Amino acid sequence: MCLAKLYREGKNDKPILEDIAYVRLDGEQTELQTLLGESKVLPGKVQEIDFMGSKIIIKITDHLEE
After folding, report:
1. Strand residue runs (E) in the chain
2. Which positions ≥6 away from 40 have C-beta within 8 Å?
3. The pTM is what?
4. Given a cut of 60, is residue 65 above it in pLDDT?
5. Among the four 4, 8, 9, 22, which has the fewest Cβ within 10 Å?
6. CA atoms of 50 and 63, how far apart (whole Å)
């Protein structure tokens, strides 16, 4: 099984989150959860989902703390 990785728009070199099993789009924020239950809510919108490449691209609308 190959789960998705989340990347910030324009920065496809390092994933923000890996092994994503759940995504919920809620207006101006995106809620994600990994297979192991790690949750993250990010201020931004999904720009692209590539199922073949197991990749989700998000456009962050606020400063992302890493």
Report:
1. 4-8, 17-26, 29-34, 39-50, 55-60
2. 16, 17, 31, 32, 33
3. 0.84
4. no
5. 22
6. 24
What confidence category does residue 15 fall into, taking pLDDT thresholds of 50, 70 and 90?
very high
pLDDT tens digits, 31-64: 999 999 999 999 999 999 999 999 999 999 875 4
Burial readout 32-58 (b: 16 or more C-beta within 10 A, e: otherwise): bbbeeeeeeebebebeeeeeeeebbbb
Q: Is 5 exposed, middle or buried (0-12, 13-18, 19+ CB in 10 A)?
A: middle
Taking the domains of the chain in order of start, what are their residue ranges?
A: 4-60
Dig out the tokens for 47 from the structure.
């720009």
CA distances from 64 to 1, 2, 30, 53 (A): 29, 26, 13, 24
